[in-house]
């Protein structure tokens, strides 16, 4: 479903419906974009992912659908629906889905 960003305020929303899978793509949708932090929904089609990178802020991944391998600082982690992981600022991490995969990324700016 395609939501108008203003319609999200004060309204219950099915988190998995914030982004839809697209063949051969990673789809993202900014839910909140404030100076203090961001919340972004992602949908990864099978075979897509994010290569190793760092971010200047702590970030939390919340798994909404599917499964993914998410290495953080060289330590492998396998996450499933309903799980979360916090990735510290400036520590290398990546997202390697093992199935179609949806996640919510919460990044706190300090």
Instruction: Count up the domains.
Output: 1
| SS-based class | mainly beta
- For the CA atoms, what is the radius of gyration? 14 Å
- Global geometry: globular
Which H/E pattern describes the elements?
EEEEEEEEE
CATH topology: Jelly Rolls
Uncertain segments are none
Total count of helical runs of at least 4 residues: 0
CATH architecture: Sandwich
Number of strands: 9
Task: Please tell me the overall pLDDT.
Answer: 93
CATH superfamily: Jelly Rolls
- Please bin the fraction of helical residues: under 10%
**Main sheet characteristics:** 5 strands, antiparallel
Structure description:
- With 110 residues, the chain is mainly beta.
- The protein has a single domain (5-108), classed as Jelly Rolls, CATH 2.60.120.
- The protein is 0% helix and 47% strand.
- The protein is built from no helices and 9 strands.
- It has strands at residues 26-34, 37-44, 50-53, 58-65, 67-69, 78-80, 84-87, 93-97, 101-108.
- The strands form 2 sheets. Strands 1-2-9-4-7 form a 5-stranded antiparallel beta sheet, with no helix packed on it. A 4-stranded antiparallel beta sheet has the order 3-8-5-6, with no helix packed on it.
- A hairpin with an 8-residue loop joins strand 5 and strand 6.
- The termini are far apart.
- This is Cupin type-2 domain-containing protein.
- InterPro entries: Cupin_2 (IPR013096), RmlC-like_jellyroll (IPR014710), RmlC_Cupin_sf (IPR011051).
- Residues 43-108 form the Cupin type-2 domain.
């Amino acid at each position: 479903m395609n939501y108008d960003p203003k319609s999200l305020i004060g309204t219950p929303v099915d988190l998995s419906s914030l982004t839809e899978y697209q063949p051969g793509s990673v789809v993202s949708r900014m839910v909140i974009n404030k100076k203090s932090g961001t919340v972004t929904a992602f949908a990864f089609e099978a075979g897509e992912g994010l290569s190793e990178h760092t971010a200047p802020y702590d970030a939390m991944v919340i798994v909404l659908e599917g499964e993914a391998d998410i290495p953080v600082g060289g330590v492998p982690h396998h996450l499933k629906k309903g799980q979360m992981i916090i990735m510290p600022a400036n520590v290398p991490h990546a997202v390697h889905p093992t199935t179609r995969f949806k996640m919510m990324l919460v990044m706190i700016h300090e």
